[in-house]
Amino acid sequence: MKIGLGQINPTVGDLAGNSARIIDLIDEARHEKADLVVFPELCLTGYPPEDLLLKPKFIADNQSALEQVARAARGLAVFLGFVHQDKGALYNAAAFIDDGVIKEIYHKMHLPNYGVFDEKRYFREGNKSSVVDCRGQKIGLGICEDIWAEKGPYEEEVGLGADVILNINASPYHLGKVREREALLKQRAEKYQAAFVYVNLVGGQDELVFDGGSMVCDPRGRLIAACDQFREELLFVDLERDRLENWRWLEAEEEIYRALLTGLRDYVLKNGFGQVLLGLSGGIDSALTLALAAEALGKERVHAVFMPSQYTAEQSYRDARAVAANLGVELAEIPIKEVFAGYLNVLQPNFMGRPADLTEENLQARIRGNYLMALSNKFGWLVLATGNKSEMSTGYCTLYGDMAGGFAVLKDVPKTLVYQLANWLNKKRPVIPEAIIKRAPTAELKPGQTDQDVLPPYEVLDPIMQAYVEENKSAAEIAALGFDAPTVARVVALIDRSEYKRRQAPPGPRLTPRAFGKDWRLPITNHYKE
Amino acid sequence: MKIGLGQINPTVGDLAGNSARIIDLIDEARHEKADLVVFPELCLTGYPPEDLLLKPKFIADNQSALEQVARAARGLAVFLGFVHQDKGALYNAAAFIDDGVIKEIYHKMHLPNYGVFDEKRYFREGNKSSVVDCRGQKIGLGICEDIWAEKGPYEEEVGLGADVILNINASPYHLGKVREREALLKQRAEKYQAAFVYVNLVGGQDELVFDGGSMVCDPRGRLIAACDQFREELLFVDLERDRLENWRWLEAEEEIYRALLTGLRDYVLKNGFGQVLLGLSGGIDSALTLALAAEALGKERVHAVFMPSQYTAEQSYRDARAVAANLGVELAEIPIKEVFAGYLNVLQPNFMGRPADLTEENLQARIRGNYLMALSNKFGWLVLATGNKSEMSTGYCTLYGDMAGGFAVLKDVPKTLVYQLANWLNKKRPVIPEAIIKRAPTAELKPGQTDQDVLPPYEVLDPIMQAYVEENKSAAEIAALGFDAPTVARVVALIDRSEYKRRQAPPGPRLTPRAFGKDWRLPITNHYKE
Fold this sequence. Notes:
Chain A is of the alpha/beta class and 530 residues long. Helix content of chain A is 39%, strand content 18%.
């Protein structure tokens, strides 16, 4: 049996565009004489459609799009995800179409409602496993979470004689997830002695990134086909003949780098922006963001602005110029000194002689934010925020200042990982000057400032943050891992009290098992202290 | 039987404070010789605890707090909500304590997972109804949604002989909700011929407001006791003897006004702010916000700043001064002209001779945002944003400009309702000058500007917005209600494309069945066009 894995990049809400793309690939699959072509979970609507699902017209339009796909599926079988309305309830569903006719509709049985998932908000659970006959083969149907559940539909389907299992997904990326999927798929294939066909989405949708990595295991649990990560692909696999030797997924740094490129590119392009803009400070975060933007979009679509203050070191200017030159991006310069002085002058009577403090630091960051937003307004460029996860955790960032922007590329990248990615990138092509990497991180908002004036070293901060944010560990548990207890308490307190800032932060691509997005729902008003 | 209704205002995460408050009221109930005192759903943790529930230590601490409450409950019975961990699962639970001993733990059977609710993210559903014996009475237990479900636990409990039914709640406010609850309670009491005791929270928690309105129906479906809305109260009711004649809930305007006061006051105070600050423009939104702030917090805790530009009319200044004077709030003045000119001067080479457009308007709004944030930083005052729901819907507001702030008081108040509230308020006490109410709304960001240059009249916009946002109606359905189809299309397009702004907006109190908060989860990247 020849199966096409349709690893596509749909856009949420684009029913016409998504169905047109699916129909194109069906035509290609027919031309390649495939028996069956398989597309991801909810590929017709894009994933996650969120509250579009509450609009009755959207559901009806999705049904029409499905019928159009079905009519186009002459001469082969197609399996794809859509939203099914049945007796007043909605189902996360998939249609098995054969030669233009919808033969079976499967309803997802296991609805994830944790982490970034809210499927029980919209869907009712299915309660029926499905086996279809196709070209003399018995094929078992299922969707995403169904394969992770211990008591999924597949056991019953195999019992009914299914020897090919289809599992379609909208499985969001986090580092190493593809290897978890592969291990599970192999285990399931071996256990049930059936071929397992796993098809996933690819692309960015707001904060979510889908990495694809569609694959097929034979009944002995051996990988016999695999799609690349982060790339649209229509891959054909002959279940009886194909073999795959020594398949390797991407290494960690490249995987994360590609995830960042995907999330950034799709946010920019799917939202109709031609060009982007960022403030280049001479520090490592904006340097890495610039490198990512130039690679994701092409250097001609990227604008960088250097906005020096009276505290900006000559080295910052030199380093900013060097990284812009390395990437071939033109660097504009807008000084903030005059306007800063203007504000302070006007505010003098209101400040009533109080000493300079964080106010003056934040004000400088906000002037920069205003310049970026003014250029964004004037030219239609999307502003990229350049802050990292360590800052976003501890609130070491200015609301409406360096946090300003439409997309925060490094929002889920801890500072230590920023360095790791910069070093990895430099090995491929030396774009980020060593001076930037070696220099102590500084916001340059007052004389002689460094991040470590107020934060623990990032090598200490990051693992504490990760244990608290990504693993829900208590301060006592983190200290028991060997960290200094007062430092842990300080970091935890900073994270807790920065919730109000995160609530107003731009979205950014999710790379870890828990980002500051849909999978982080902490109250702002919160008196809990451990 | 004498029952105390403990309509309290807990704070999320404040396990020590909440349990201390509960114990105080238990002592008071004992002193009043009550047989039983009933507290709201999850009153120990506050509602909603959100992802605090994912912290194992938080669950353990909540269990300890419950045990402390139980020990204090000597000589009477207590029913209250807490989180129960049982065999690895979490339950939205309630404990029935009698004379210091936990006699029964009930698990909520119907978990809401729609609108603002995410209970299936955290909790497993209970599957057992509970009847306890207390002072010779059989009492049936249940929590919140259990009473709304057609097949709730109460039917079984009444079958087992329960003649008093307890229903504890964390039921968020929206306009008129208390009347819906009352009608349901009467219907249930009559149907089951049992006394129904309904206890609800009061207070603000981020975007949610709880209005209380706890009440008791006798077995003939007659209201025999009711607590005020929006006020902590420990109300005692004698089931056999008490009667209540001609009870009336608040009228619409007062109900909304009190909801706004509650949401604002609790956000400010529970987050530890002593004082607040807002920009007073001479328009109606900031005037109403100032009136609310002065009443919620006391005028001495409220700071107002007038920030004129070259486009500010003399009338604006006069009106701003008048409303500040009426409310007894001191009005500072910070002109934005100089800094605006400074920005334009610096930006001139970058703007390359392009004509003035929205950029210059947004820039003025952002300068004001910066001044407010600078004062906030310097003095620790919380900035209140003053925009309304009509603006938040259509994107007629500036990100980091007039949208800047910690709490957006009128975020869920459409412009027509702003006027309605101002007129209602003036009848009690004339604080908002008639000139403000009569004048055409304007952002004063360019000469001769009014809102209606780009928006339909608010009498047209608001009902279209409400049909689209609050009722999920399609553009065609709204036009069929009698609205001009191109106008509907324009409003819908404005709402759709402003999602990115709303994602970075501050929280504000929810007053309608659908606010731009937890109950509005639309993707930013979204190609759906009807």
